[in-house]
Design a protein that fits this description.
Shape: globular
Strand content: 5-15%
Radius of gyration: 15 Å
Strand order of the largest sheet: 1-2-3
Helix content: 40-55%
Distance between the termini: 40 Å
Structural class: alpha+beta
Order of helices and strands: HEHEEEEHHHH
Number of helices: 6
Number of strands: 5
Largest sheet: 3 strands, mixed
Length: 138
């Protein structure tokens, strides 16, 4: 499955990064589970065929701070993962609250990460709501 998007123009440069609910499961941040395999690819990524089930592609130009290397694959950072899920509105709020709490408890998200990043107005409102629910003040 990952081979479907792993090569760019026949080079060995990976273009797919595990993201969204898949990244949430990789980090073990909540009890949310989805059968789909989510990957984020660059905005200019093109394939002539439809992604095979259960692969779901999301398009975004990720920054270096949005990506982490785990073992032999790339995954969005915990903060980016939570932001992606906040923006997609595809996961129940209780699982997002659980994910934020677990990310803080495991040290995967720190207050400094939140202070360094620039958020959209919508992200700020949604993220502040979640942080308030778990008792974190930034």
């Amino acid at each position: 499955m990952a081979q479907w998007i792993s090569l760019r123009y026949l080079s060995l440069t990976p273009v797919g990064v595990y993201s969204h609910a898949t990244a949430l499961n990789i980090y073990k941040l909540s009890d949310w589970f989805e059968n789909s395999l989510h990957m984020t690819v660059p905005l200019n990524f093109r394939r002539r065929s439809i992604p095979p089930y259960p692969l779901m592609l999301h398009k975004a130009n990720l920054t270096v701070s949005d990506i982490q290397k785990l073992d032999c694959y790339l995954v969005t950072s915990p903060l980016r993962t939570i932001l992606d899920l906040l923006n997609s509105d595809t996961i129940e709020q209780r699982f997002l609250i659980q994910a934020v709490l677990q990310a803080f408890n495991k040290g995967l998200i720190l207050k400094s990460h939140l202070e360094e990043r620039v958020f959209s107005a919508t992200e700020t409102i949604k993220l502040n709501y979640l942080l308030d629910k778990i008792g974190v003040n930034v």
